Structures are given as structure tokens and as C-alpha cells.
Amino acid sequence: xxxxxxxxxxxxxxxxxxxxxxxxxxxxxxxxxxxxxxxxxxxxxxxxxxxxxxxxxxxxxxxxxxxxxxxxxxxxxxxxxxxxxxxxxxxxxxxxxxxxxxxxxxxxxxxxxxxxxxxxxxxxxxxxxxxxxxxxxxx
Length: 139
Prior knowledge:
- By secondary structure, the chain is mainly alpha-helical.
- It has helices spanning about 10-20, 30-40, 50-70, 95-105, 125-135, and strands spanning about 80-85, 90, 115-120.
- A 3-stranded mixed beta sheet has the order 2-1-3.
- α1 crosses α4 and α3 packs across α4.
């Protein structure tokens, strides 16, 4: 499935790590996080290199679980939140960037989401998405 995110740095780096065997510490984003930690900043929910290592290990485990299960978990606590802005732009969060990127890397056809915030001026996008979903269900 082409999600239009193949050029996103997270997708590129996850492909490098999981399919080309590039170690986490050789990826530009991880190098930057290590530098920020050395400068005393808090990155990726981590205050230390050890905590960042645990986070990266959790990404390895999550990727393997998604690959083995054939998709992302639909359990409520695992759902990525989809939001719709005033302009109708779709965005997710808080959180979920790695799960979305992993879904793209693995070529998943669907990503279970929960609806978060919908701006009143952007609700037309939600209506279009619901109509499209209804057509696909009855096709």
C-alpha cells in the first residue's frame, strides 16, 4: 500500500534499520538524539542514553510483533489518534509516529486508528472518509 510517506525520514530510517541491518546508532535521527542527550536535553521520553537504548529495543520488539501479527494492534490502548485540522489536513498524535512508519515499511493495507480532534471547519474531510469507507464496505 502506498501511503505517500515513502520519503518521510522515519520510513527511510526504519527501512535501513530493519531491512538493511543499519544499527540504530548509525541512523541520523538517533545520532542527533544522542547529541541532544549529551547536551542535557530530554529526547524520545528518555533522559539518558540507557533509557534511549530501551526505547529503541522496544521499537525492535514492536516491529517484530507487527510483522508476525500482520498488522497493528486494534486494542484501544494501542490505537494511533487521527485528528483533522481546520484546513482538513489529517495528522496523528500525540504519539504513534513509529507505528505509522512501521505500517508503511511493512506495506500494511490498513491502520487501525481512533478519531481524535476534528475542527468544525475540517469536518467535511471526515464526512468524505466515512462515505469512502461505506462505499468500500459495500463494494
